[in-house]
Amino acid sequence: MTDPMIAVDNIHKSYLMGKEAVPALRGVSLDIQPGDFVCLMGPSGSGKTTLLNIIGGLDEPSRGHITVAGENLVALSENKLARLRLQKMGFIFQNYNLLANFTAQENVEAPMVLAKVGRKERQQRASALLERVGLGDRGHHYPGELSGGQQQRVAIARALANNPPILIGDEMTGDLDSETGFAIMRLVAELNSEGMTVVFVTHDPRMAEFARRLIHLQDGKILK
Ligand SMILES: Nc1ncnc2c1ncn2[C@@H]1O[C@H](COP(=O)(O)OP(=O)(O)O)[C@@H](O)[C@H]1O
Ligand SMILES: [Mg+2]
Description:
224 residues; alpha/beta; Rossmann fold; four-stranded antiparallel β-sheet; 7 helices; 27% strand; binds adenosine-5'-diphosphate; binds magnesium ion
């Protein structure tokens, strides 16, 4: 057996609202193998985003363990965690989260700037990635000049910038019409077939069908 790419072990998470602790996750355990294609589903408020953010190192569990690519996230310094996120994970969000004052090309280059990739290589790689997602001729456009589907393609190219083994998506087709959403999911499925580990959240069953494994969350727990 190979080691899991992501190991979630009895994670609990509560948010403090004033003096009250609001439980978001209540004992979640989950192993995700390299190359898995996992969809997290469940009603609004069931803890999907919280779990995804903890896997992505964007949030910390209140208790429990989380290992990503062999690293214990809770034990990492801020710097090491930032580096792990940069090198091991690409993120895609519902609202694309592109930098509005940067062109598509510059948005894709941004994670490579942080990873200190040289200028020439950065430019070549960003162009190749934009080509890959079907936007080879849109590099000089700003996000405001692109459709939602095009912006999400730029976000995917950006997520791939440092060639991470893991792709994480939170409602990445949520703002798109279904045809455009399917096109995005086909692209993600293609990346998975090339070996990328994919974990995504959706509440659209038609998008969930692309995954190989469905995990249902309810009230902060995995439904068995
Ligand atoms: N930053 C926060 N502060 C307080 N409560 C939060 C916060 N984020 C999420 N929650 C609560 O945690 C629970 C799970 O939320 P979330 O993970 O966003 O669910 P989902 O993505 O499945 O809709 C909900 O009860 C939500 O209100
Ligand atoms: Mg959510």
